[in-house]
Amino acid sequence: FPPLTEQWEILTYLEARVRTFDQLQAEAEKAIELLQERCTALISAAVTGKIDVRGYAAQETA
Question: Lowest CB count within 10 Å: 6, 12, 24, 57, which one?
């Protein structure tokens, strides 16, 4: 095993990386939730006639 001081440095580094990943995951989850809410609102607006979708042409995906 590496010396104890080096082990602590590794631990500190890894904890910082884990915090970063946790923050990124939380931000991604918030973004997904917001997009789902917007999608639901858009569908609702289209179904209730609040927006006109008659001229919409679906784009082909490659």
Answer: 57
- Region of 49 (left: φ > 0; alpha: ψ -120 to 50; beta: rest) is left
| 2 Cβ neighbours under 8 A, 6+ residues apart | 10
Q: State how far the alpha carbon of 29 is from the alpha carbons of 16, 43, 50, 51, in Å.
A: 20, 21, 29, 28
Alpha helices in the chain (DSSP H): 4-47
Which is it for the CA torsion 45, 46, 52, 56, positive or negative? positive
Count of C-beta atoms within a 10 Å radius of residue 46:
13
Please tell me whether the overall predicted TM-score, pTM, comes out greater than 0.90 for this model. no
Q: How far is CA 41 from the centre of its chain?
A: 18
